[in-house]
Design goal:
Shape: globular
Number of strands: 27
Helix content: 25-40%
Largest sheet: 9 strands, mixed
C-alpha cells in the first residue's frame, strides 16, 4: 500500500497544533493536512498536567487564539477550562477529523530529489510512514515523557511519597499531610496555595527565590465592557491592552532593573505579614532574566498569611526517613515530597531530522523569522513567546506559514529553504534566558542570529509589523521546483 500523502503534516495537537490547523483551514482550504498526535487526547500541556490548581500563567485574552474570543469570567484560567477551549476551537473549525491520535513521530527524512518529507510514525508498536510536502512541528518545548528531577541523596530512605507534578497520580490523598514542594517556579507557586485546602501544612522549599507578581483573576473593567460591547470587541480591546501592559512591564524591567526589583518586592511585601522575612522573595538575578511567576488574586500570599503555607530558602543535604535534611542541619518534616524542579527541555519532540539520509545538526542552524531554519527545506516549528503569552506569536507564525504556502502555489514552486548569503554571522541561543532548565540544554538548541531575519524579537508589535509586511520574495528564501512523482492525496 502506498504511503498516505498530505500537503502539510502537523506534529502535535496541543495549543499550537490546533491553532495552526485552524489557520490552515481558513487560509489554505485546498491543502490536505493531518495532525499526528502521540497521545490520545487534544490539549498537549493542558491535557498532560493534572496537578491541583493547574492554571495559565498568562491571561487568556492573550493566551487565547486571535480568531476565538475567550468568554470565561476568569482571565487567569484553570487547566480544565483551557483544555475545553482548545477542544472547542478544534470542533468549531472542523479540525478534529484530521487528528491521528496515538501516532508518535520517530523520524523525518527530506528527499531533495522529490521535494518531499518521509515521516516515520509508531502506532501501537507498529511502524508506519507518511509523506508530505511540508512538516510543521508544534511539539512545544519540553519532554512529555520525562520531567527534570535532580539526584537527591537518601531518596530511598524517605518513608513517604515522592512525585513529580508532570505525572500526578489521580488517587493522591494529601488530606492532613505535611507536604513539601521543592522548587520556586510557576508550578511550585501554583501547587502551594492549591494544596492548602486539605493538607495540614504546605512548604515551598527553594534553593533560590523567583520574582512573583500578583494579578487579578477577574478584571472588573472587562466585566463592565461586556455590558456595553459585543464579546468580539471586548476580546480585541482587552487583548490589545494586555499585550501593551505586558510588553511595557517587560521593557521597564529590562531598562530599569533596580527600580523594577524594588517595585516587585514592594507589592509582595504589602500582601505578607509585617514580620515576614523578604529574603524568600528576593532573587539574585534581575527581573525578566527568568520568567515572572503570576499569583492570581495573591492566593499564595494569603495562604502564607493564614499559616497554611510557608517558604524555606535553603539547600538540601539529603532526604531522610521523615523528610528533608537541610544544609543548616535542620530537618523539614514531610509526608509527601513534590519535586517541582522543572521541565526537561526538548525542542522538535526529540525527533531525528534528516535530509537525504544525513542527520541535520539542528543545534548549528539559525532560526528564520522564528519559524523556519537555515538550509532546512519545507520545514517549520511553532514556538511562542517566552516573555509574553505563547499564542500571540504562535498565531502570527501560523499565518505567515499559510502566506508562504499561497506564495509558493502562485509561483508554481515546490521547495523553499532559508539561506544566509552573508556567510558567517554571530549567533546567540535560540531561547535567550538564564533559567536553569534552558542552560542545561543550551548546546542542543538551534541558534538565532544578530540581524534580521535571523534574530528573534521578544516584541509582539515588532513581530506583527515584520511578519505582516515581510515579503516572501527575498534573497534569504531560496525556491526551487523539483519533479515530483505523483502521490495519492488524502483530504
Amino acid at each position: 500500500m502506498a504511503n498516505e500523502f498530505f500537503d502539510v503534516l502537523i506534529i502535535g495537537a496541543g495549543l499550537s497544533g490546533i491553532g495552526a490547523a485552524c489557520h490552515l483551514k481558513k487560509e489554505c482550504p485546498g491543502k490536505s493536512f493531518a495532525i499526528l498526535e502521540g497521545r490520545q487526547a487534544i490539549g498537549g500541556t493542558w491535557d498532560l498536567f493534572r496537578y491541583p490548581g493547574i492554571r495559565s500563567d498568562s491571561d487568556m485574552y492573550t493566551l487565547g487564539y486571535d480568531f476565538k474570543p475567550w468568554v470565561n469570567q476568569k482571565g487567569i484560567a484553570d487547566g480544565d477550562d483551557i483544555r475545553g477551549y482548545i477542544q472547542e476551537a478544534a470542533q468549531e473549525n472542523d479540525v478534529e477529523s484530521h487528528i491521528r491520535f496515538g501516532h508518535k513521530v520517530t523520524g523525518l527524512n527530506y528527499s531533495s530529489a522529490d521535494s518531499l518529507w518521509t515521516v516515520d510514525v509508531e502506532v501501537n508498536g507498529e511502524a508506519r510512514q507518511y509523506r508530505a510536502q511540508f512538516v510543521l512541528s508544534c511539539t512545544g518545548y519540553y519532554n512529555y515523557n520525562e520531567g527534570f528531577t535532580p539526584e537527591f541523596d537518601g531518596r530511598e530512605d524517605f518513608k513517604g511519597q515522592v512525585l513529580h507534578p508532570q505525572f500526578w497520580p489521580e488517587d493522591l490523598d494529601y488530606t492532613g499531610k505535611k507536604v513539601v514542594v521543592i522548587g520556586s517556579g510557576a508550578t511550585a507557586v501554583t501547587l502551594v496555595p492549591a494544596m492548602t485546602d486539605k493538607a495540614e501544612k504546605v512548604t515551598m522549599l527553594q534553593r533560590s527565590p523567583s520574582y512573583v507578581i500578583s494579578v487579578p483573576q477577574m478584571d472588573p473593567v472587562i466585566k463592565f465592557m461586556r455590558k456595553i460591547m459585543p464579546e468580539k470587541w471586548v476580546y480585541k480591546v482587552t487583548r490589545g491592552r494586555n499585550v501593551t501592559i505586558t510588553l511595557a512591564i517587560y521593557n521597564f524591567c529590562k531598562k530599569f532593573p533596580g527600580l523594577a526589583r524594588k517595585l516587585l518586592q514592594k507589592q509582595v511585601a504589602a500582601q505578607l505579614p509585617k514580620d515576614f522575612d523578604m529574603k524568600h522573595f528576593t532573587p539574585k538575578y534581575n527581573p525578566w532574566d527568568e520568567r515572572l511567576c503570576a499569583v492570581p488574586n495573591g492566593d499564595m500570599f494569603k495562604a502564607i498569611s493564614k499559616g497554611k503555607a510557608d517558604v524555606v530558602t535553603n539547600h538540601i543535604d539529603r532526604f531522610v526517613e521523615n523528610g528533608i535534611l537541610l544544609k543548616d542541619g535542620s530537618t523539614l518534616e514531610a509526608d509527601i515530597i513534590i519535586t517541582a524542579t522543572g521541565l526537561k527541555i526538548q525542542l522538535l519532540g526529540g525527533i531525528d531530522i534528516k535530509k537525504d539520509g544525513e542527520i541535520i545538526p539542528m543545534n548549528e542552524k539559525m532560526s528564520y523569522r522564528g519559524l523556519m531554519f537555515q538550509d532546512v527545506p519545507n520545514f517549520g516549528m511553532i514556538f511562542g513567546y517566552t516573555n509574553a503569552s505563547w499564542t500571540l506569536k504562535a498565531d502570527m507564525l501560523a499565518k505567515w506559514f499559510c502566506g508562504l504556502l499561497k506564495h509558493m502555489d502562485h509561483n508554481g514552486v515546490r521547495q523553499v529553504q532559508p539561506v544566509n548569503h552573508g556567510g558567517s554571522m554571530e549567533t546567540r541561543p535560540f531561547v535567550d534566558m538564564q533559567s536553569g532548565y534552558i542552560a542545561r540544554v543550551a548546546d542542543t538548541l538551534p541558534r538565532q542570529g544578530m540581524e534580521k531575519p535571523w534574530k528573534l524579537y521578544q516584541n509582539y508589535f515588532a513581530d506583527m509589523a515584520s511578519l505582516k509586511l515581510g515579503k516572501y520574495d527575498v534573497d534569504t528564501l531560496e525556491y526551487s521546483n523539483q519533479v515530483v512523482t505523483s502521490e495519492p492525496r488524502t483530504a
